[in-house]
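User: Could you check the structure of this?
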Amino acid sequence: MFALIDGNNFYTSAEQAFRCALKGQPVIVASNNDGCTISRSEEAKALGVKMGQPLFQLKPLIAHKGLVCLSANFELYGDLSDRMMSLAAGLGPIQEVYSIDESFIGGLDGIRNLTQRAWAVRARIEQWVGIPCCVGLGPTKTISKLCNKVAKDAERKPGSYPAEFVRVCNWQEMDARMQEDILRRTPAGDIWGVGKRISLQLAERGILTALDLAHMPTSIARTQWSVVLERTVRELQGVSCIPIEQAPPPKKQIACTRSFGHPISTLDPLIEAVSEFASRAGEKLRSQGLCAGAILVFAHTSPFRPGPRFSKSATVTLQPATSDTRILVGAAVRGLRSIFQPGYQLSKAGVMLLDLVSGHSLQNDMLAEFLPYHDQSPLMEAVDHLNRRYGKGTLRVGSSGFEHVDPDGWRMKQERRTPRYTTRLNEVPIVRA
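Assistant: Sure, the predicted structure tokens are below.
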């Protein structure tokens, strides 16, 4: 038995948790650089705001319909996600954090009053963290994902599913007739693992609903599509094929890329940007106990602006592999200098750490014994500890500059960002009674 706990409109809910006046109001959260919509409250959806819609198209709604637009505050969202997931883990013994707002819970077989327990966990998350969520319970991960959708749509789209399944939906408490009705109401394209392209192909074969998909012979799903679709069909039939992943798969690369607040055409601000990106990537690298054997740096102009085009990258080999921020930044800057050309209005740059290996494996690298290498992991641990304690960027390499000094405007636009209430002492809300 599986459960899927999913926060409703997570980013906007996180904003509303600290600004009660926003509850019941049309609210959206914009992407990095305030480019497009990445989260919408139900009221914003009712105004017709689409996911991914550019902000400049929403100016009439902001001016005349009271639409509230906020810049992304990922530091706040990440902290609230950690708190939500720690509470969600109370539902069962096995947890898989699937995304920033979704968590699968496994090992629920034999738990008494499971629906009641799910209601209790959901209420605790909303009371302690301020994030409303829905819970789907089913014998497979795919069915639990479907039940989560039912729990959400039954509340926000009255009539789409029976009202008795609002917020918490348990597949095993339905009789066979009700299960068939739920599958019939659900389009095949809404099932987890069925993408838009496959749903169009299925529609050509007359497979329009989840019920049609569940009745598809598994041999046809495998031979005419893929083993992935076969697993989806089996899961809809109640056969568990997708286990809980308690440990995330090892990463093949780590990337840190950003669009600039304004185009830049000179080298110095570009070095600042790439230095910061390499530093952030290095933090991620160390948090996973990995080292990088190469670093790729790139920069390009916007494909949507007039003017000459520029898009180049360079890869610098790191021998031996390292997680030392100073070495990563130095390599990234060398790569950047090799590709930089003046006269272009650059809109985006980034770094990617490649050839990732476990930090422990370097101890057995015989070649490393003959190379000039000094272990600086204690220094990096101290840097990470200070930045975790006092906030990101407290201690940084000099070439990344300072957040309050940005003459060329390369840093992202975040004109509407709310305070980082839970991670910055100077931004903690003050209540006066």
